[in-house]
Specification:
Blueprint (H helix, E strand, L loop, with lengths): L9 E3 L2 E3 L3 E3 L16 H10 L6 E8 L16 H16 L3 E7 L17 E2 L19 E2 L2 H20 L4 E5 L5 H6 L14 H4 L1 H14 L4 E5 L13 H15 L5 E5 L17 H6 L4 E4 L6 H11 L2 E4 L1 H5 L3 H7 L25 H5 L9
Parallel strand pairs: 3-4, 3-12, 4-5, 5-8, 6-7, 8-9, 9-10, 10-11, 11-12
Antiparallel strand pairs: 1-2
This protein binds flavin mononucleotide.
The site of flavin mononucleotide (FMN) has 22 residues, from β4.
Pfam family, one: Oxidored_FMN
InterPro entries: Aldolase_TIM (IPR013785), OxRdtase_FMN_N (IPR001155), Oye-like (IPR045247)
Family: Belongs to the NADH:flavin oxidoreductase/NADH oxidase family.
Length: 376
């Protein structure tokens, strides 16, 4: 029997997974807007997706410090209260036999002074604003380039957040190095025009990512550390002149220095927010060939289930599902049994209450005949 395939077991760090269907990190903005503490809704949401056990869940992007971004409703992992809130989430997931990593987030320039303590100016690699407005319709501000001595504080914040994550019961942390947030703002050539050791050459632009990985590994161990990367993304206005070379170098350094990371997670260039798998002239093969260990692939697989099954069988990769895991709390079961999927509702992706969060039915629930007055 092949050891590859979506429903073959695999080891991640110290955890044996029963299958390779992963909950992708998904921002849902339902934490307390002031304290950024996760609540009972989170316990229920992640508990539902822990299913019958044996799966890997990655949380929504989670702020490493008050300065990390602070979108209203995004959770944090810097305060005692937040750690206590997350403890209930990790317990619910562990009680059902699944594994959970928290995604560590600093948005850099992708925020606004109004959301930061003391209305501080957002920070980034360089003083270059994102073009246009954000999803809330607010025009982006010009950020302040981090001073070189502030970069070590930033790295420390990732390490502290990782330590807090372990205290909160997480099985590991995924460093968010993707989608145009601060680490990616350093990596991409159009958002980094620094002239110090963190800008210019590929070695310099990838230095922050690699130093964050070093610091987190030192704090919690390689088996509890992972990173997510997205070569070719233009989200948040990032663009790189030589993606294959840039991320090829970065992945090679990870392979050389940290071959025992829990996993490497990358996003397919074909990913699009439109309701299709999308298409791209690029793919992840170049990086996948460099990385020799556990690999998670994401992007458009919910719109291409046959492609997901085939890809997992061919490569042994885990596949992270985003939008269809929002709508199908029992997604691994449905995929294994080849059952139809619930559609997702884009209008309830972000914010608000339980609607579109914890009220999507499992397949079994969709089969229960509605209770009528006569039988009730
Ligand atoms: C509502 C929503 C929120 C997302 N939030 C995050 C996030 O917090 N961190 C992250 O790395 N990616 C985030 N993504 C990207 C997803 O993790 C995933 O890469 C993307 O949705 C592609 O997978 P899919 O085609 O299966 O949906 C988000 C996507 C959606 C739709």
């Amino acid at each position: 029997m092949s050891s590859k395939g979506l429903f073959q077991p695999i080891r991640i760090g110290n955890h044996e997974l029963k299958h390779r269907v992963v909950l992708a990190p998904l921002t849902r903005l339902r934490a307390d807007p002031e304290t950024h503490v996760p609540n009972e809704k989170h316990v229920q949401y992640y508990g539902q997706r822990a299913g019958n056990g044996g799966g890997l869940l990655i949380t929504e992007a989670t702020n490493i410090s008050p300065m990390a971004g602070n979108y209203p409703g995004a959770p944090g992992i810097w305060s005692k209260e937040q750690i206590e809130g997350w403890k209930k989430v990790t317990k619910a997931v562990h009680d059902r036999g699944s594994t959970i990593f928290v995604q560590l987030w600093h948005v850099g320039r992708a925020t606004h002074a109004v959301w930061l303590p003391n209305n501080a100016q957002p920070v980034s690699a360089s003083a270059i604003a994102i073009n246009g407005s954000d999803t809330f319709g607010i025009a982006h501000e010009v950020p302040r380039a981090l001073e070189i001595n502030e970069i070590s504080d930033l790295i420390n914040d990732y390490a502290k957040a990782a330590k807090n994550a372990i205290e909160a019961g997480f099985d590991g942390v995924e460093i968010h190095g993707a989608n145009g947030y601060i680490i990616d703002q350093f990596i991409n050539s159009n958002s980094n025009q620094r002239t110090d050791r963190y800008g210019g050459s590929i070695e310099n632009r990838t230095r922050l990512a690699l130093e964050v990985v070093d610091a987190v590994v030192k704090t919690v161990g390689a088996d509890k550390t992972a990173i997510r990367l997205s070569p070719f993304t233009h989200f948040q206005d990032v663009d790189d002149a030589t993606p294959n070379d840039t991320w090829g170098y970065l992945v090679q350094q990870l392979q050389n220095n940290h071959p025992d990371l829990a996993y490497l997670h990358m996003i397919e260039p074909r990913f699009t927010f439109e309701d299709s798998a999308g298409a791209s002239e690029h793919n992840l093969d170049h990086f996948r060939n460099i990385w020799k260990s556990v690999f998670i692939n994401a992007g458009g697989f919910g719109h291409d289930l046959a492609g997901a099954i085939e890809h997992a069988e061919k490569t042994g990769d885990l596949i992270a599902f985003g939008r269809y895991y929002i709508a199908n709390p029992d997604l691994p079961y449905r995929l294994q049994q080849q059952l139809p999927l619930n559609a997702y509702n884009r209008a309830t992706f972000y914010g608000a209450g339980p609607e579109g969060y914890t009220d999507y039915p499992t397949y079994e629930e969709t089969q229960i005949a509605p209770v009528t007055a006569a039988t009730a």
